[in-house]
């Protein structure tokens, strides 16, 4: 996926991949200190609950709310399913996923599932509910 993006002039370099429990704990604790627990819980997973600990989730491009409006952010959204990834936390689906919109956070689910989820415009939660 990164090769195809690069050939189009897009930079989708990995910002964050696998995290250990200890790393996630440090990140979460820092976010709670900065923003308080209630706000931190909308964007930061508690240790043990982060998809990054599964090794299946990656943050690519830029950790920036406007990333989804950039050419590479749009390309990522429209093409990552071809490589088995979904955009995990969609805009307007915050109530379902429990997380705010994260245009940079992708999760590997395999090409078949990723394609269905993308084409239906649904979240992993919604997919798992009906399948
Ligand atoms: Zn992430």
Word description of this protein:
The chain is of the alpha+beta class. It has 2 domains: 2-13 and 62-130, 2-Layer Sandwich (Muramoyl-pentapeptide Carboxypeptidase, domain 2), CATH 3.30.1380.10; 18-54. It has 7 helices and 4 strands. The protein has helices spanning 2-7, 21-35, 37-40, 71-79, 94-97, 111-120, 124-130, and strands at 14-16, 57-60, 85-89, 102-108. Strands 1-2-4-3 form a 4-stranded antiparallel sheet. The structure holds zinc ion. Zinc ion is lined by residues 16, 52, 57, 59, 105.
Descriptors:
131 residues; alpha+beta; Muramoyl-pentapeptide Carboxypeptidase, domain 2; 7 helices; 15% strand; globular; binds zinc ion
């Amino acid at each position: 996926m990164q090769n195809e993006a690069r050939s189009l002039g897009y930079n989708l370099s990995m910002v964050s991949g696998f995290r250990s429990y200890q790393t996630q704990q440090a990140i979460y604790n820092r976010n709670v200190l900065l923003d308080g627990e209630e706000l931190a819980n909308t964007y930061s997973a508690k240790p043990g609950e982060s998809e990054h600990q599964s090794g299946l989730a990656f943050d690519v491009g830029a950790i920036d709310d406007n990333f989804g409006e950039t050419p590479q952010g749009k390309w990522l959204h429209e093409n990552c399913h071809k490589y088995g990834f979904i955009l995990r936390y969609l805009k307007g689906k915050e109530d379902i996923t429990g997380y705010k919109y994260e245009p940079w956070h992708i999760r590997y689910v395999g090409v078949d599932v990723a394609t269905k989820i993308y084409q239906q415009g649904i979240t992993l939660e919604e997919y798992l509910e009906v399948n």
